[in-house]
Amino acid sequence: MSEETPPSWAKACATAFFGLSALVVTIALLSSSADDKPSSPTREQVAAADFAKWPFTVPDGELRCRDGLLVTFATSGFEYGINGMAQDRGYPRPDAIWAYSPSLGHGLKVSIDEVLKRGLRLCRTT
User: Fold this and answer.
1) The pTM of the whole model exceeds 0.70
2) Phi/psi of residue 47, each to 5°?
């Protein structure tokens, strides 16, 4: 007994259905407004003494993970986006408090990588 092949229109409909389903799911995941800032982040107080190289000009602040992906740093009433996802959601870059590196010179800033990694660890605990 030979197996029948579905008509080409059936394949096209199935492909369109799955493609549309994927599009709907993607839109639903991305539908939150850029102005919506999550209200209950995972938080950790951090200070210069906690890091080998402190990248900020302020002595301390609160490292936060919002929505499981957005890493921010709050200090003196401001909250800055540490990773691109936070900045894309409206948190400003930390340029105002980001320290210049005297050892690198040429206007380069201290690496923010250690703070970002710590913030991403907070995100994994949510």
Assistant:
1) no
2) -145, 165
